[in-house]
Amino acid sequence: MRTATDIAAAVRAGRESAVSVAARTLDTLRADSHVAVTRVLAERAMAEAAAVDARIARGEDAGPLAGVPYAVKDLFDVEGLPTTAGSAARAKGPVASADAEAVRRLKAAGGVLCATLNMDAFAYGFATVNADYGTTRNPHDPARLAGGSSGGSAAAVAAGLVPLALGSDTNGSVRVPASLCGLYGVRPARGDLPVAGTFPFAESFDEIGPFAADLGDLALVWEVLRGGAVAPSAEAPRIARLGGRFRANADPAQCAAIDAIAPQAPLIELPDVARARSAAFVITAYEGGRLHKTALAADPMTYDPAVRDRLMAGALLPDALYARALAFRAEYVAGVKALMAPFDVLLAPSAPCAAPLIEDPTILIDGEPSPARANLGIHTQPITFTGLPVLAVPLKRPGQLPLGLQLIGKRGGEGALLRLAAELEERGATGVTMPANAYAGEMT
């Protein structure tokens, strides 16, 4: 697949028009066979591409993403369209009065929005199994899940439909599909990227993040979204490996890769990991349930059955339990901060295994079969709890199903994550292997 950086360079130099790039991308999106795309935005894409070409013709700077096609998870506001958040009940309106802030920033940088993408209904799940829009299929094996809730975003990039896509991450919804689809992805530090204009799930945890098949592309779109550089650090990062439940519930290949990456790094354990995950469940369920409480009472049958019961249960959680979970979060964050003080990066698995089969969506947790939709985030939820930035990286596994790792940094320490990711790619430990049938996006 062509990189976003290459496309933008070709468009800015006049070797290719943004309109021609958009037209090919739209044709590719229309042919999507992975149930990744919910709407192809042809009229908007062609208008934005024409505007990029006009800026170039006038001798203006068309931006770092000049003519680069991208797509967004269907919880980002797109002006003039309803924001479905993965629910057909919302497809009838109301329409968004303006673009989400992240979409506005990508447009200002020359990006061309081409489609909206599938997700778990209201972002509640790690599978992208959607009663209204279908189950997104993993481009590496269409019989397997793409992960979620940003599965459509991950599948669209992994299939080569677009070089960049935006998702959201509440408890792992970027990191899990990045791992299962073999991509780079970002869960930013708390509040670092703009969430304005996105449909909320659990506001204590909601963040947005990009997917890319190229590390340079990821760094570029990350900078555009945050409005400032994410420069690799000058010094080699101090690394620690996460042990305990992070190793007990991991694919052996993930543990072996972590040990090979940093064989001398200390093996440390985060305190109360299982309790942190439980508290994250409580906070997520409570906030999600309260958000939907009125709509559920008015018309519960319009909700995806797999999500409805979980939201209703959350709406019934007592205030006191929620308060206890928030109090524990404050204690947990302080403990993790102290434990991480001597280090710049923590290494951990992302999803605990390769993509499960759609027909048998179960995974092993503590040796017992467990539903994938609820448990693929076993390693991401405790990290979400901390508010720390995470760069998801794919292990280099040609001919095998993808597996990924979390590079977990300090607040303000994103440069260490980029430096380590680049070093790992140079060493051949990590990197994207596109599926054999991925669209390559050649110039014509």
What are the key terms here?
444 residues; 17 strands; eleven-stranded mixed sheet; alpha+beta; AS_sf; Amidase signature (AS) enzymes; two-stranded antiparallel sheet
Structure in a nutshell:
This is Amidase. The chain is of the alpha+beta class and 444 residues long.
Widest sheet, order of strands:
1-3-2-8-10-9-16-17-13-11-12
Q: What's the shape?
A: globular
User: Roughly how many Å apart are the termini?
Assistant: 14 Å
Average pLDDT confidence is 96
Helicity, as a percent range: 25-40%
- Number of helices, counting only DSSP H or I runs of 4 residues or more: 15
Number of strands: 17
Domain Amidase: 35-227, 292-418
GO molecular function, one term: catalytic activity
InterPro entries: Amidase, Amidase_dom, AS_sf, Carboxybiuret_hydro_AtzE
Protein name: Amidase
Q: Could you describe the 3D structure shown?
A:
The protein is an alpha+beta fold and 444 residues long. Helices cover 38% and strands 16% of the residues. It has 15 helices and 17 strands. The relative contact order is 0.14. The mean pLDDT is 96.
Secondary-structure blueprint of this entry?
Layout (H helix, E strand, L loop, with lengths): L3 H9 L5 H13 L6 E4 L1 H16 L11 E5 L27 H8 L3 E6 L11 E2 L3 E2 L1 E2 L2 E5 L5 H8 L5 E6 L5 H7 L2 E4 L19 E6 L2 H12 L12 E4 L2 H4 L3 H10 L5 E2 L4 H26 L6 H11 L3 H22 L4 E5 L12 E4 L2 E4 H4 L5 H4 L5 E5 L9 E6 L4 H14 L17
Parallel strand pairs: 2-3, 2-8, 11-12, 11-13
Antiparallel strand pairs: 1-3, 4-5, 6-7, 8-10, 9-10, 9-16, 13-17, 14-15, 16-17
Helix pairs in contact: 2-3, 10-11, 10-12
